[in-house]
């Protein structure tokens, strides 16, 4: 294989190192955008206690099919807007009705 052929075959592979996170939808008020709360547990550096940390991510929802309370998986992608660089990949669990 020549150098030119090697570069075309390697760039054609799908990206496998995409970051994915699982979180709960906390807002679906904007069109094509949802807010996902991702919670994680970490060990406190000094005291060794397990503490909860959370962060909100804005994710792209093209069809507007995800509602508040749904458990979704989001994946990192190119910047879509100023605050939105994540896209919803799949629905893991529908929201429970009260």
From TrEMBL:
Gene Ontology biological-process entries: translation
Q: Does Ribosomal protein appear among the keywords?
A: yes
The organism sits in which domain of life? Bacteria
InterPro entries xrefs: NA-bd_OB-fold, Ribosomal_uS17, Ribosomal_uS17_bact/chlr, Ribosomal_uS17_CS
Q: Which UniProt keywords apply?
A: Ribonucleoprotein, Ribosomal protein, RNA-binding, rRNA-binding
Biased composition annotated in UniProt, kind: Polar residues? 1-20
Question: Which GO molecular function terms does the record list?
Answer: rRNA binding; structural constituent of ribosome
Tell me the segments the record calls region Disordered: 1-24
Q: Name one GO cellular component term.
A: cytosolic small ribosomal subunit
Q: Does the keyword RNA-binding apply?
A: yes
- Give the UniProt family note: Belongs to the universal ribosomal protein uS17 family.
Q: How does it assemble?
A: Part of the 30S ribosomal subunit.
State what this protein does.
Answer: One of the primary rRNA binding proteins, it binds specifically to the 5'-end of 16S ribosomal RNA.
- Show the HAMAP family listed in the entry: Ribosomal_uS17_B
- Name the record gives this protein: Small ribosomal subunit protein uS17
Highest classification ranks of the organism: Bacteria, Pseudomonadati, Pseudomonadota, Betaproteobacteria, Burkholderiales
């Amino acid at each position: 294989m020549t150098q030119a052929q090697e570069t075309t075959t390697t760039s054609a592979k799908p990206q496998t190192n995409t970051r994915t996170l699982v979180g709960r939808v906390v807002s679906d008020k904007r069109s094509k955008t949802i807010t996902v709360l991702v919670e994680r547990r970490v060990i406190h550096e000094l005291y060794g206690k397990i503490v909860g940390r959370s962060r909100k991510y804005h994710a792209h929802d093209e069809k507007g099919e995800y509602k508040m309370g749904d458990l979704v998986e989001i994946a990192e992608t190119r910047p879509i807007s100023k605050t939105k660089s994540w896209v919803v990949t799949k629905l893991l669990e529908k929201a429970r009705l009260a």
